[in-house]
Design brief:
alpha/beta, Rossmann fold, 7-stranded parallel beta sheet, two-stranded parallel ribbon, 9 helices, 38% helix, binds nicotinamide-adenine-dinucleotide, binds uridine-5'-diphosphate
């Protein structure tokens, strides 16, 4: 049995990861400060003999004994990470330093949940790992984008300087049950608006694109990446190459919810990337992975979750 630390384990992705690790027989220490996560995401795990929940902020040192670390702690939606941008950078950078220091002391392998945001508003499409990105260093999104870029730098420097076993995954937009209903991300916004009969808010003209990966596919890729040979640190893109405009997404959500909500157009936020699609050739080659869940199927699962949540 492996002792595994999951930071940000009470969040959307973290809670699914904890579940999968327990199911395969690992011992899981979930660390979270509940900034955007929720105890209810892991309530069903609390009785599990191999699950432990700890309230802790990763910007402070953490002394525990583990063999593997999944570092997911960081607010991920623009509304949340822009709420306290200084804290967002601290979480990414100080959090990475502390978790890398911990990994170094206990000789643990450590995986970083990085993001497609490191590519910024890309002029290369789709984005391969070799693309360096086009990020505004002083804009509204910078606390998150540059924080995550600096965390990648720290991971690779600990790897080179201290021979740490690192894994860096660049996650593209992921959705599914346990997304925060008010975090402003497009999938949760559209579904909640459609189910409530409220207007669907399209930012800009809705022609910007994103590629949406269902959470189960993403977690599978993260687990496979963690188990790759030590000489493969990544970075590796994880996402679903199926690319949709926000207008297409809105139409799909309206259709699947049988909603009569109307589309309304609102201003596009600053630095909003126009397009985003992962090149997943490396994931296919190195971890024999590609996503299996089609957008319609994943949305149906997510709609079922939000229907239940809103009924409560
Ligand atoms: P989330 O907000 O649901 O989860 C983040 C978790 O981290 C929350 O439980 C939050 O309370 C916790 N947290 C935040 N600051 C913390 C701190 N200082 N100390 C301890 N815990 C802290 O978001 P998510 O979608 O589950 O994202 C998880 C990770 O994956 C994040 O690092 C995010 O940047 C990355 N990611 C997610 C996506 C996506 O589409 N969901 C895309 C790219 C990258
Ligand atoms: N750290 C931690 N847990 C540990 C070991 C270290 O949180 O088990 C933190 C510690 O606070 C330090 C950071 O990780 O500031 C970086 O550790 P490292 O050993 O790389 O650097 P140093 O301690 O020399 O600054
Ligand atoms: N978006 C939208 N309506 C919403 C929320 C988001 O049109 O109610 C757009 C947003 O402008 C962006 C895309 O949907 O172009 C994805 O936004 P999200 O915040 O989910 O992710 P990110 O921009 O970080 O990829």
């Amino acid at each position: 049995m492996n002792r595994i630390l999951v930071t940000g384990g009470a969040g959307f992705l973290g809670s699914h990861l904890c579940e999968r690790l327990l199911a395969r027989g690992d011992d899981v220490l979930c660390v979270d400060n509940f900034f955007t996560g929720d105890k209810r995401n892991v309530t069903h795990l609390l009785q599990h003999p191999h699950f432990e929940l700890m309230r802790h902020d990763v910007t402070f040192p953490l002394y525990v004994e583990v063999e593997r670390i999944f570092n997911l702690a960081c607010p991920a939606s623009p509304i949340h990470y822009q709420h306290d941008p200084v804290q967002t950078t601290k979480t990414s950078v100080h959090g990475a330093i502390n978790m890398l220091g911990l990994a170094k002391r206990v000789k643990a392998r450590i995986l970083q949940a990085s993001t497609s945001e490191v590519y910024g508003d890309p002029e290369v499409h789709p984005q391969p790992e070799s693309y360096w990105g086009r990020v505004n260093p002083i804009g509204m999104r910078s606390c998150y984008d540059e924080g995550k870029r600096c965390a990648e730098t720290l991971f690779f420097d600990y790897h080179r300087q201290h021979r740490l076993e690192i894994k860096v995954v660049r996650i593209f937009n992921t959705y599914g049950p346990r997304m925060h209903p008010n975090d402003g991300r497009v999938v949760s916004n559209f579904i909640v608006q459609a189910l409530r009969g409220h207007d669907i808010t399209i930012y800009g003209d809705g022609s910007q694109t994103r590629s949406f990966c269902y959470v189960d596919d993403l977690i599978e890729a993260m687990l496979r990446m963690m188990d790759t040979p030590a000489d493969f640190p990544g970075p590796i893109n994880i996402g679903n190459p199926g690319e949709f405009t926000m207008l297409e997404l809105a139409e799909k959500v309206l259709h699947l919810t049988n909603s009569r909500s109307k589309l309304v157009f609102q201003p596009l936020p600053a630095d909003d990337p126009k397009q985003r699609q992962p090149d997943i050739s490396l994931a296919k080659e190195r971890i024999d992975w590609e996503p299996k869940v089609a957008l319609g199927d994943g949305l149906t699962e997510t709609i079922t979750y939000f229907r239940k949540l809103l009924a409560e």
